[in-house]
Write a structure and sequence with these properties.
Catalyzes the isomerization of 5-dehydro-4-deoxy-D-glucuronate to 3-deoxy-D-glycero-2,5-hexodiulosonate. Helix content is 4%, strand content 44%. It has 294 residues and is mainly β. The radius of gyration is 18 Å and the shape is globular.
Length: 294
């Protein structure tokens, strides 16, 4: 639902921000990394802390991965000092997918109500962005992706009904899944950000298999709906020399453009993929034969 507001929330909470930068790495560097080093460079563990914006900036395409879980009223998105911007979206665009309870985002005075698994795209140049939860006991969890942008495109909510939906894989190969393209150019215009959500069917555990790379885009995966006491093993690296990172529920992982990005869980799960780069062609992939992976 979209509503125009004449006044902003009176109970606005003083926002707190965590910000971390991570340098880009080459395949040669990654070959020499141990488990802790892989996790320090690519794994994003804590995205949802009460009333605190959590941001990790990857120098791969200057991709920002973040989260906000509003509890005590309304929190306002401000530009961290590291962006050197007057406001957060001065030179950026923003994608939001709610993975928690019902919540609201107010963008330049227009309110958008987001239910579970609904998305919102906010265009470059939007100056005021506010986040709130409908119920503090069941708070919204807004998963955030942001990329540099040079043009303003209209802010738009994307419900599950609006998604471009594709079904892939089979139960026989343990990868029967539904791909929901939410913030992609077949649904709405963006500068470079693309986001979607892949849901694995019961009995399936493999995502993005056969694996692929794409030189013109990097990617971030956010795993959620991972059952308690279960985990996902995320695979990365060059096809001929792969690495893995074990991940828990509501964690994200950075995938360089030269790396595969695939995973297998001890149960079925859901993940959000976000991409940025110099093209918006979803099908631009260099596939790797399963038997060629090493």
């Amino acid at each position: 639902m979209q509503t125009e507001l004449t006044t902003l929330a009176a109970n606005q909470t003083e926002q707190e921000t965590f910000f971390e930068s991570r340098y880009a790495t080459s395949p040669t560097e990654v070959k020499g990394m141990n488990t802790d080093q892989l996790r320090q460079n690519f794994l994003i563990e804590n995205l949802f802390v009460a009333d605190q914006f959590r941001w990790v900036l990857s120098f791969f395409d200057r991709y920002l991965t973040g989260g906000i879980m509003p509890i005590d009223g309304t929190v306002a998105l401000t530009a961290p000092d590291q962006l050197k911007a007057a406001y957060f979206l001065e030179r950026r665009e923003l994608g939001i997918i709610n993975v928690g309870g019902q919540g609201r985002v107010v963008a330049d005075g227009i309110a958008y109500d987001l239910d579970y698994k609904e998305a919102l795209y906010i265009g470059q140049g939007t100056q005021s962005i506010l986040f709130s939860s409908n119920d503090a006991d069941a708070p919204a969890k807004f998963y955030l992706n942001s990329t540099p942008a040079t043009k303003n495109y209209p802010t738009r909510k994307v419900s599950r009904a609006d998604a471009d939906v594709v079904e892939l894989g089979t139960l026989g190969t343990s990868n029967h899944r539904t791909i929901n393209k939410l913030i992609v150019n077949s649904v709405l215009p963006t500068c470079q950000l693309q986001m979607g959500m892949t849901e694995l069917k019961t009995g399936s555990v493999w995502n993005t298999m056969p694996a692929h790379t794409h030189d013109r885009r990097m990617e971030v995966y956010f795993y959620f709906e991972v059952p308690e006491n279960q985990a996902v093993c995320h695979f990365m690296g060059q096809p001929q020399e792969t690495r893995h990172i074990w991940m828990q529920n509501e964690q994200a992982v950075i995938s360089p453009n030269w790396s595969i990005h695939s995973g297998a869980g001890t149960s079925n799960y859901t993940f959000i993929w976000g991409m940025a780069g110099e093209n918006l062609d979803y099908s631009d992939m260099d596939f790797c034969a399963i038997t060629d992976l090493k």
